[in-house]
Specification:
mainly beta; seven-stranded mixed sheet; six-stranded mixed sheet; 30 strands; elongated; disordered N terminus
Length: about 350
């Protein structure tokens, strides 16, 4: 567990990152003179993404996993909402880093005019596109308490995606300090690619992969730490580019591997490979037939596969069915093994011996 404790105070507080031991000053805007709020102190920690316990077997693919990683982007801002009883609700409190000295500023304090023993239910969320006129946060229906949730949409382009962070805590004004423990409610995927020994003499160039027919939006419920996929939205297609010399382009897949050798696969994306974030979901694979007539999930590999003057990737693509259970808070790494089980757009297994 990586702890990133920090304090929010009026007028000054401190953020201490355990990993770097840097002190970060943080201030809160002074409240309206007519509403003298009590300084709100906050501590924050984070659980990094972790490995799933089990792998998913996929045609033409091998699922493998790596050590836990921290979130994709450094926590630089977040929002707080909250409520007490049915009548009291907090307006969103914005907390952000404002300069290179890691100064943090928040725009709210403890609510005034309530007892120090009042339970206040706080909900925090980071790495969201926030619009005051269209907030992603909803309190939900009241039934002895609210059932708060976020509506979150994952961008289909891996390079624009954000790693959603969430936290909740119930505290009383007399506690002074609220501890938020952020977790990663999305699933993270990483893809690597290689070729089997069956394609030893083939020249393979890969530009990108597209993961077709997966859900990109859903409702995250704070109180139950659970998701509901928004199945009213048409399934999305997620794109991950190949990079060559730090720029999008073709990569040569010349590493030949056995069914158990995965060490020399090439990571897709920038540098050590980009993560693709997804709403947690059970993915049902494409089971054959034309890809234009399926709602099953499959990976399209934009590539060329050449030998003897012939390109076996008709139309510049080959296809592989994809199935997985994507769990929240976990990172899944999949090794795409380009071999004789790849299919064309009609669902037919490609005959690489037809020269």
């Amino acid at each position: 567990m990586k702890h990133i404790p920090f304090l929010i105070a009026l007028p000054l507080a401190c953020l201490m990152a355990c990993s770097s031991h840097d002190d970060i000053d943080e201030t809160i805007d002074k409240p309206n003179p007519e509403t003298k709020g009590k300084p709100l102190l906050v501590e924050v920690s984070e659980t990094p993404l972790a490995d799933p316990e089990a792998a998913s077997a996929n045609t033409g693919m091998t699922a493998i996993f790596r050590a836990p990683v921290v979130n994709k982007t450094t926590l630089s801002q977040f929002y707080l909402n909250g409520y007490w009883s049915q009548s009291g609700k907090l307006n969103p409190s914005y907390v952000s880093r404002t300069d290179n000295n890691s100064t943090w500023v928040a725009n709210n304090t403890w609510p005034s005019g309530i007892s120090d023993d009042t339970d206040i239910h706080f909900y925090a969320y980071a790495n969201v596109d926030y619009n005051p006129s269209a907030s992603p946060f909803y309190y939900g229906d009241y039934s002895g308490g609210y059932n708060p949730y976020l509506y979150f949409i994952v961008d289909e382009n891996a390079e624009r995606q954000k790693d959603l962070l969430v936290a909740k805590k119930t505290a009383k004004p007399k506690d002074n300090t609220v501890h938020f423990h952020f977790t990663h409610p999305c699933a993270a995927l990483q893809f690597a690619i290689c070729k089997t020994k069956a394609l030893t003499n083939f020249d393979i160039q890969v530009q990108k992969i597209i993961l077709h027919n997966t859900h990109s939006s859903g409702y995250y419920y704070f109180n139950t730490d659970s998701w509901k996929v928004d199945d009213t939205v048409y399934p999305s297609d997620f794109t991950l580019l190949a990079y060559h010399n730090d720029s999008p382009g073709s990569i040569t897949v010349n590493t030949e591997v056995s069914s158990t050798d995965r060490s020399n696969s090439i990571l897709l994306g920038k540098g050590d490979g980009d993560f693709m974030f997804f709403i947690p979901q059970d993915i049902v694979p494409w089971n054959g037939g034309s890809v234009s007539n399926t709602d099953g999930t499959y990976i399209e590999i934009k590539c060329s596969i050449k030998k003897g003057g012939k390109d076996y990737a008709e139309g510049g693509s080959v296809f592989i069915p994809f199935a997985a259970t994507l769990e929240k808070g976990f990172i899944h790494r999949f090794n795409i093994r380009m071999g004789t089980s790849m299919r064309d757009a009609g669902g037919n297994v490609i005959n690489f011996r037809d020269q």
